[in-house]
Specification:
The chain is elongated. The chain is α+β, with helices and mostly antiparallel strands. Helix 3 packs antiparallel against helix 5 and helix 3 packs parallel to helix 7 (about 170-195). It has helices spanning about 15-25, 30, 35-40, 45, 55-85, 145-160, 170-195; strands at about 10, 95, 100-105, 110-115, 120-125, 125-130, 135-140, 160-165. The longest helix has 30 residues, at about 55-85. It is built from seven helices and eight strands, in the order E-H-H-H-H-H-E-E-E-E-E-E-H-E-H. It has one domain. The protein is about 50% helix and about 15% strand. It starts with 7 loop residues before the first strand and ends in a 5-residue tail after the last helix.
Length: about 200
């Protein structure tokens, strides 16, 4: 039987590397930013080819890819730094994981809850995330627990909470982008070829 007896306690100050993987994992756009950028940004150059009547959609696709890169490198980092400066994340906190529930104490706040107050859990490889709502979660970094403690807690929480599944839109995001890019590529090439041969589209 999976138990948390004795309870697991540790002190930690969350860092950027603790928050980055969960925030990327739970945002489909950020999670797939690299393949999306590789597929969409080159369409910008296709928009510059004379005779391409679909240059505007190409520019929009390229802008979408560039937005993914900017969001990933600038907006996400800025958001994490803002979180780390809030009372909940600044300074060292004391965590307690026990049969009865979850406790978190910092210098400016205290949070205590039984496991029924959490709705889902997820393992992002470097941390276990405990969701109190669809978008709000607490992070339990793997680096703060021993290998056996991490495995014990993972097995325990799996018996208490439903595991977070990927939203359906995440499963459709990459195939959807591939279809749009291929369609735009085909239309652009058709437009360029027909224009070159003097056909009025």
């Amino acid at each position: 039987m999976n138990t948390l007896d004795p309870e697991i306690t540790y002190n930690a100050q969350l860092q950027e590397e603790d928050l980055q993987p969960p925030l990327i994992e739970f945002s489909g756009l950020l999670k797939f930013w690299r393949p999306i950028a590789w597929m969409t940004i080159p369409s910008t150059f296709l928009a510059l080819v004379p005779g391409n009547f679909f240059s505007t959609p190409c520019l929009l696709l390229g802008g979408f890819g560039a937005m993914c890169v900017i969001w990933r490198h600038l907006t996400l980092k800025k958001h994490i730094q803002k979180l780390l400066n809030t009372p909940m994340y600044s300074g060292e906190q004391m965590y307690s994981l026990s049969e009865s529930g979850f406790k978190l104490r910092g210098s400016h706040f205290s949070f205590e809850s039984d496991w029924s107050q959490f709705v889902k859990w997820a393992d992002v490889g470097s941390a276990i995330c405990l969701f109190t709502s669809q978008h709000q979660f607490y992070v339990i970094p793997q680096r703060c627990l021993s290998e056996s403690q991490y495995a014990t807690f993972r097995n325990f929480i799996a018996t208490k909470l439903e595991k977070r599944e990927k939203p359906s839109y995440e499963k459709l995001m990459l195939p959807g982008v591939v279809i749009v890019v291929l369609m735009e590529l085909g239309l652009s090439l058709f437009s360029i070829v027909m224009t070159k041969f003097g056909t009025d589209l």
